Amino acid sequence: MDGTAERNISRVAMVMATIRQRIGGRILTPGAKLPSVRAMAVTAGVSTSTVVDAYERLVAEGVILSRQGSGFYVANQAAPFSLSEVGPKLDRAVDPFWVSRQSLEADDTNLKPGCGWLPPSWLPEDGIRRALRALSRAGNTALADYGSPLGLPPLRQHIARRMAERGMEASPDQIMLTESGTQAIDLLCRFLLEPGDTVLVDDPCYFNFQALLRAHRAKIVSVPYTPSGPNVELFAKAVEEYRPRLYITNSAIHNPTGATLSPVVAHRILKLADKLDLTIIEDDIFADFEHTPAPRLAAFDGLDRVIHIGSFSKTLSASARCGFIAAKREWVDGLIDLKIATSFGGGRLSAELVYKVLSDGSYRKHVEVLRSRLSKAMFEVSARLKDLGIVPWHEPSAGMFLWCRLPDDVDAADVARAALNRKIVLAPGNAFSLSQSAKNFIRFNVSQTLDKRVFDVLRETLGG
């Protein structure tokens, strides 16, 4: 930006600040007419175009109103903004929304070892900026038009190649882009479930699975999870007894435990699914964290009973919302119709951005560095937690999550609330457990748990 442009922006900001001060000081009250553009320009010593720009920005913010042929007026003001109302409610019950609300509502001064994403500094900022610059030079269609319901063809082709690298065969016409992994599951629940249908989940499982299923009025049944996958015997009993319509799981890197599905368990689960007409949604959003690809249910099944979903929020950007569904061909048209009904066209701009970053040769290098960085953080955080008597339930081979047991049956919800008072967001175990059997567990995101303050607060809270 050159010096002239910077000066113009600063003059606009000056005019805006002047108007805000007059409103704040009650010189201009709600409904009062602002000075005309020409009069304000003379008073402020700026051009009329500067005042027009400032007034238009204040209109966009809702501070003032424009009345055609009459001028600009102070808007009716809302109730005074109170900082005490900002931020997470400390007394909120530990439910499937607890971690999400605390993490998303917390400000930048909070530490977030309980959140499910990487620090922004760990993401490929340079690649995203290059992609944004390229998009700024794109044609009007890419910048302003709806995307096709199926989604950007080059990105779908890219996803098909990535799936093939992990042993899954899917043609681009079997892949539909979504706004996120969460939207992918939401669309599938709309497509496959009726209110009252039973859905099987792991215990523990990603808390938003529970939240989404409750929104769809499904009956949720859980099965204990082991370091090699769901407990097969209890899984078989649950399927026989409840005849669920769906089973939703992570197979590669499980959330929250970090465990990996074994081939033996995968085969037994698929045999049960085939026998009892069970559809499986396999959430694979952590795929790029793996050093060596783990077994995928979709690879064994060939997208017959398994629907494979993913997104790019964990390794690329949570702000550029883009996910996908890979399913058998006969279901794709129905999913397209449902997507049109609920969100019309696809988010083309995000898809274009994601494709440009993924197809940049630097992305693979970024992911390699990320895996190494996570491995180092996993080792360091695990060791420091063990020093406090907080023991990992399982030593993950990859990913960012440690599922840990607190000492002496300490209630994780109490620890989490105490930490929140110190501006640290933790993820207590029962937020992940349908059976509420994880009272003394906490999920740690190792990439967000490196700050010394986290361990200091844990030590004080645990009385160490």
Automatic annotation (TrEMBL):
Keywords: Aminotransferase, DNA-binding, Pyridoxal phosphate, Transcription, Transcription regulation, Transferase. Residues 9-77 form the HTH gntR-type domain. The keyword Ribonucleoprotein does not apply. PROSITE patterns: HTH_GNTR. It comes from the Bacteria. InterPro entries: Aminotransferase_I/II_large, HTH_trans_reg/aminotransferase, PyrdxlP-dep_Trfase, PyrdxlP-dep_Trfase_major, PyrdxlP-dep_Trfase_small, Tscrpt_reg_HTH_GntR, WH-like_DNA-bd_sf, WH_DNA-bd_sf. One of its GO terms (molecular function) is pyridoxal phosphate binding. Gene3D superfamilies: Aspartate Aminotransferase, domain 1 (3.90.1150.10), Type I PLP-dependent aspartate aminotransferase-like (Major domain) (3.40.640.10), Winged helix-like DNA-binding domain superfamily/Winged helix DNA-binding domain (1.10.10.10). In the C-terminal section; belongs to the class-I pyridoxal-phosphate-dependent aminotransferase family. PANTHER family: HTH-TYPE TRANSCRIPTIONAL REGULATORY PROTEIN GABR (PTHR46577), TRANSCRIPTIONAL REGULATORY PROTEIN (PTHR46577:SF2). This is DNA-binding transcriptional regulator, MocR family, contains an aminotransferase domain. The gene is ydcR_1.
